[in-house]
Amino acid sequence: MRWAVALLAAVLALAGVAGCGGDGAEPGVPKGATLMLDFSPNAVHSGIYAAQARGFYEREGVELTIRQPGESTDAPKLLAAGRVDFAVLDIHDLGIARERGLKVTAVSPIVQRPLASVIARSDTGIARPRDLEGRTVGVTGLPSDEAVLDSEVEADGGDPALVKRVTIGFNAVSALAAGKVDAATGFWNAEGVALRRQGVPIQIFKVDEYGAPPYPELVLATSSRMLEEQTEQVKAVVDATDDGYALVVRRPDVGLDAMLAADPALDRADQGAQMRELRPDLSPALFSLDLLREWEQWDIEHGILNRPIKYVETFVFW
């Protein structure tokens, strides 16, 4: 009798494997995946939230969980370790992570141009980047900030060495509003919008208008291992995300509604103002090898990267 019970158990186990597929999941059941944002939710993430709200990920067979980063979050390390499946990364951070040996790969651009800029108080007589010579400029302390500031001043015919720099962390809005600095590095879609909504007189100098190529500031990334082993799921997430951003470009209200439903603490007016600035640059696109080469050269020239990257391992050209 004992052998009959064992045989029955074996048959049931095999039936279970056959019914669930080789990975143990039932056919048609969405596979779980996590996506970590680069910052607290804002309009630049609207396509992701729209895709989730409209069921685009589920349509592609993915049950996506969106996570916000903590203060000490190191998204490239979490990706490489398999603790998250996808992450929105700054393209410079992606390059630095690759230099440090982390096997992470960008699978799609999120926004189609740099968001970095120098924001100056226009009531101080600063009308162009070279006017920053002799002025006090706040920076976060990140290498990319120094690159943005140097690139803009130099491209406008000024001497970056004559700019007085002070580290203010991520407090550009309060520092500029209080007049503690004459200018500061920041994102034109975030700090720039916030300052204008507060009525602070500012002039925004976008880095791709002063020396930098129009590289994609934010990218959707995954681990190289996941890309190799679960290519179909990665492509499914990319397709759903692209559809989400395409929808937001057509219907920005859909993105705003989805974000506010996910995070009611967000201010609709603030996010709407950001959306109006960002909307032209949210259309889905593929990576351009020529453009990435220009970005790499710019990063190396300004000390963000130390050596050329391996494009085939760092970016996916679907």
Task: Walk me through what this model shows.
It is a single chain. The protein has 318 residues and is of the alpha/beta class. The protein has two domains: 31-113 and 215-314, Periplasmic binding protein-like II (D-Maltodextrin-Binding Protein, domain 2, 3-Layer(aba) Sandwich), CATH 3.40.190.10; 116-209, Periplasmic binding protein-like II (D-Maltodextrin-Binding Protein, domain 2). Helices cover 43% and strands 17% of the residues. It is built from 14 helices and ten strands. The protein has helices at residues 2-20, 46-53, 56-59, 75-80, 91-99, 143-155, 172-177, 191-197, 224-229, 231-250, 252-262, 268-278, 289-301, 311-314; strands spanning 31-36, 62-67, 86-90, 104-109, 116-121, 136-139, 164-167, 183-187, 202-206, 218-223. The strands form two sheets. A five-stranded mixed β-sheet has the order 2-1-3-10-4. Helix 2 (46-53) crosses helix 10 and helix 10 (231-250) crosses helix 11 (252-262). The longest helix has 20 residues, at 231-250. The N and C termini lie far apart (57 Å). The relative contact order is 0.18. Residues 1-25 have low confidence and may be disordered.
